[in-house]
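User: Fold both of these, please.

Assistant: Here is the first one.
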Amino acid sequence: MGNIMQTLTGASDGKFSGKVAVIIGGTSGMGLATAKMLLDGGARVLVTGRSQAGLESAQKELGKDALVVSSDARSLTDIDALAARVKSEFGTFDLLSVSAGFAIRAPFESMTEAAYDEMFNLNTKGPLFAVQKLAPLINRGGSVVFTTSVANVKGMPGNTAYGAAKAAMRSFARTLAAELLPREIRVNAVTPGPIDTPIVDKVFTGKGEAAQIREKMIGMVPMKRWGTSEEIAKAVLFLAFDATFTTGAEIPVDGGWSQL
């Protein structure tokens, strides 16, 4: 089974041997796929999530070699506790992948303060302070990879606060790359387009709405399909370990949607 998984994911046995990764928002979707690839390649991995069901499912899927930790990506108290846990478990580590995120879709006219705050707490405030608290533990030559969204460059109705929050995260990739240069830590971003993850069904909850959105997106994306979590994971790991002369950059993984 391991060899089959390596063939499917592109990971080679031992490719990430000796590496340690922390994935914030790693219990489902893109973060989970990244964790799987790292584990298949021999890395040590800690992933975080919020829901008990998600934590239990991720632990079962990733196996006993993964550390699955309950941590709210919006909470500075939880981020402090996470940094202490990472220090006690690993001392230092090599990759911080900030993958937690969620969209509350609402027309501009009905945007509420609560929805606005939720989008910026999860997609902007949490990621910034996660890097602040965890960067001192990242080894020289290590990296931070943010997961942003194509909404940070495209005007998408219903995504006013989400798009702005993700644009702020894209800005972090530039500014923090400059801030962390003295520590030799690279900071980059992966920008997904339509990726078929469980979050699609959580965001589009109306009867048949998720299926309609999937069909609509296929018509809009130049490559005429949705992307996979594994395709995002490959981009994250490229930036994390292979792109050693790249910092402050953004890789769109969106089927050409933002480029063509």
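And the second sequence with its predicted structure:
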Amino acid sequence: MDHGDGDQRLRKGDRIALLTSGGDAPGMNTGLRAAAKVGAALGLEVLGVEEGYKGLIEGRFRTLEPRALDDAARRGGTLIGTARSKLFMTEEGRARAREEILKARLRGLVVLGGNGSLTGARALDGTLCHDGSPLRVVGLPASIDNDLGCTAMAIGVDTAMNTIMEACDRIADTALAHQRVFIVEVMGRDCGYLAMTAGIATGADAVLFREGGKSDEQIVDQVMRAVEAAFARAAGRRHVLVIKSEGVSFDSGKLKEAVDARIAGRFDTDTRVTVLGHVVRGGSPTAFDRLLASRLANVAVRALFEGQTQVMAGWTAPHTGRPSRAPSRHDPHVTLWPLEEVLAETAKMHSGDSEVVKWRVKALSEAEAVLYT
């Protein structure tokens, strides 16, 4: 369909595609369903891209069946698959992706994913459609680590937190029965948000996260303070729960050995390690994640339809020291942020320079001060 001289808005009959990339997150399927339904209501033809940017390079587009989307929306993972593509990081890979976009006659692309996925979306800036107009690209934040800038929550975070909380509650039962120290490692390579929030939710005795900047010795000292507070008093707590983010460089097994060496001869207890790993990624999305994914997708697709591009739909973005933006007219809790700004703020979060991360560390430090009283 030819729109003449650069009309930015999409029209009925135009074709868009949905793509999930990087690590999967509970709620991605819900976001796909909402995006497909909103697109259909606006008169757009909506396709799915199989296996992320890898599938985009290979031109693997598929029709999205409404019934399949309805069934998948209640499950974790992603119906259309996801993959990390090293080829897309090259100019050759992006050139091949642009060729497939032209052949498929796409006018818009919705990307669900984390930092790498949105970086890929940013790299498509300047891509032209078959009619000579620019390809419209919008992003949805989906990452269980909650490590994306310009959004207070990402799709999948709430489900992951609930999974960790349930697992820790179960572990606490056996820890209490045996009077043990349990170190529970959770996901969070570049961001300790899951460990931080799960630590508060579960009443953990110690929380270890990369942003704390502690040395191995300081980490052992922190765990031992928790052990001493629990076991040194006759009426004290008879078990210890330590939550550790995978981003902490001190290996969990070596941490156990160091703690056991300090415990030996002092307390009648020992240490166990549980690595939750990819268990945290799976499971049916919570009600909040389903609502979040649906509302973000609604705003994202409508923004695409209205001709906006290179933006991400963020959920009530936290204060970051910058002037805020007006919320979308379609949802007072969703704001559209330029991808360039999102990625810049995300880089600050990973380096620890973000005001949001500084607040998180401060809040956890204050919470830690009352753990041993």
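The domain at 15-156+285-350 is CATH 3.40.50.450 (Rossmann fold).
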